[in-house]
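Problem 3 from the worked examples.
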Amino acid sequence: MQPTARVRRCDRSPIRVLFDLAQRTDGDLVRLEVGEPDFDTPAHVKEAAVAAIERGETNYTSNAGLPALRTAIADTLAREYGHSYGAGDVLVTTGGMEALHLACLSVLEPGDDLLIPSPGWPNYWTQAQLADATPVEVPMAFPYDLDADRVIDRMGPDTGAVMLCSPSNPTGRVFTDETVAGVIEAAREHDAYVIADEVYAALTYDRDPTGMATLVDDSEHVITIGSCSKAYAMTGWRVGWLATESSVVDETTKIRESTTASTPTPSQHAAIAALEGPQAPVREMQTAFRERRDYVTDRLAEMDGVKASRSQGAFYAFLDPEGYDDSTALAKALVTEAGVVFAPGAGFGDAGEGKLRLSYANSLDRLETGLDRLDAYL
């Protein structure tokens, strides 16, 4: 006996393969492979969780989440990104990852295509396969801006959804309003959804962030995904959300009854404090990430034989070292021979092969050391 074909055709993320290799490697490694803020969760957020525990708030909540948190999410989406969701349009999830998985399970029929502009996050492929759908890569050309025409040309009768992530993981590019709106309108005409992955929206550096669903008059076919993980340095708290029309939220909530049931209650209280409390810690992180972005951009521009697009959000740079066609082999060699860890570009689709993703969620000193090692190796 063996697991189902559905499970067997899923691959491990190369990011995690490099993470595990780094864990087994002795020495002073500069870790630039994992997308996780290097800041502590804000004090008032931790205090809210402790207070909830001391009040005995440790039981199940509604499958859709605490009403106060659903309201806080809707208010935040309206205030920060222009969304018009109500509390009933929000489903609290166990991280943004679960929100993405639930979205795929909810709107993709077996055999549907999920269009993925690439380079794209590896888990999109897996989430499509677990929904018995087909992940379809739509490669974007350097500097990896969204080519709406290319995505629209790939739409057809089997298209169930399009995955858009802006700011992008792994490239850090922020898609223009016009291109996003064009894809959403075309998806609607094909009776397909757009799954708008906005987990990095708060970390947009060169313009004000805008919710993708706000760019069209009819947003019925848009599912907005968000999370506390990146903006509030709460990766381990596992609080995310899915926001769309209430009928889809109600149907999707049924899946949670058989999976995670509800997000941990103390984490939900912490999320309320994060969204409704002081936003100064978020602005401090934004400032630090912007400074690091500028440093990394300048350093990469100075390196011979390296091409990289300018990161406009999130905390990633995507670089193309000339002369390498096996990014996994290169990434492994950089760990064992140079002492610096990157995510191999092959994990982000065929368009990423030969390239590396750098996470600048690390101190300027460590970034300097890591880029010195990369430059010397190349």
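Problem 4, a separate protein:
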Amino acid sequence: MNRKEKRELEKEAKYFFELMKNNKHFFKDLNKVLLQVKDPRNQSYITYDTDVLLLAPILKNLFNMKSMRGMTESFNRDECIENVKKILGKKTLVELPHYDTINDFLSALDSKELEKIRTYMIKELLKKRSLEKYRINEKYWGVIIDGTGLFSFDEKHCEHCLRREYRDENGEVKKTVYMHHVLEAKLVVGDMVLSIASEFIENESEDVKKQDCKLKAFYRLAEKLKKIFKRLPICILGDSLYTCEGVFDICEENKWKYMLRFKEGRISSVADEFAKLKLLESDNKLEDICWVNGIAYNQRKLNLIECELDEQDGNKKQFLFITDMNITKRNAKALSHAGKSRWKIENQGFNNQKNVRYYIEHANSHNYTAMKNHYILTQIADIMMQLFEKGTKLLKTIKKTAIKISSDLLESFRRHILTDEDITNMVKPIQIRCT
């Protein structure tokens, strides 16, 4: 497609309308869910409803805006006010909230209220039959677990900060860095990785003897996942950190499966047994894949699969995964790719949110509760954006960078007021394929 053909296609494009239509298709009751958030503010002094206060920072993320101040300045247009008014079905809306007003609200808001919004969205998506083909072994939903750093400070930010000390050759503390990290559970469906739960890695107080860590946070995250998705058949995907007895026990108790990266140093007896048996079991091979089922370990049976997979630089590398799913010639290839999909949380997930869009390492508030709420709002926006990018026919035809897509959305939001006909067309049934 040449440049002229692209221009012709884009002449009638209404990017913001397409985004909102996409949201309506997947989340028809989202406006009600935003409005039903339990408001912690004194009801006597309220100017803006919760749906307005939450939609503004969600749009900020969708439009790839780094700061709350920049959002307030950019949204200060009659077109923006009118568009938000129409999207939310407000009879009156004179101004959009200032970033200080939003941050004051987020500083008092219980993060569980935002988690309910995300849960509603994910449960709506799980009802869509179009995502069934991404299940592992035609049954289990792949859920990737991994953590990342969000904010770092040279001075203590709050009592929940993690600490990392840098010492000189004499063992004296030369520098202390204070940090906030998060552990994420992301649903992997094709090329999309969608946040379904977050657990912040945080100290209970500044005088704790042993700091919080990813493994401790996993146990809390697992409890949260089971409570939210009681009967969802899950397969946990993770790195070698989670190859341990505690994780195995939790997965068994919750009736989950697991597919984890395995390194020899993690469970040496299992690694030794696999090295011997894979040479003897000649039938358990398929192209660049070999496996061994039923290795005994602490009154349980473990299965290992070794495969050669392509890395990002084009080279091939041997990977070893441990699982409680029986490996056969029929599913070996699919299971090896399921194990590899763990890297999507780093590439399509954290790397994208740090270096391409959303700026999750930028603290939008100095208040810790607001910081956490901003992070969850980013995950909500990211779900919307991935569905928009994968499901909008025009975007699949005209290849655009992530930054350009967000830029076009912002321009459309700022310059084109949604018509009554647009609002009517938003709720009309459409078919979207996120491939």
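Solution to problem 4. Residues 3-111+367-426 form one domain. The chain has two domains: 3-111+367-426, 139-353.
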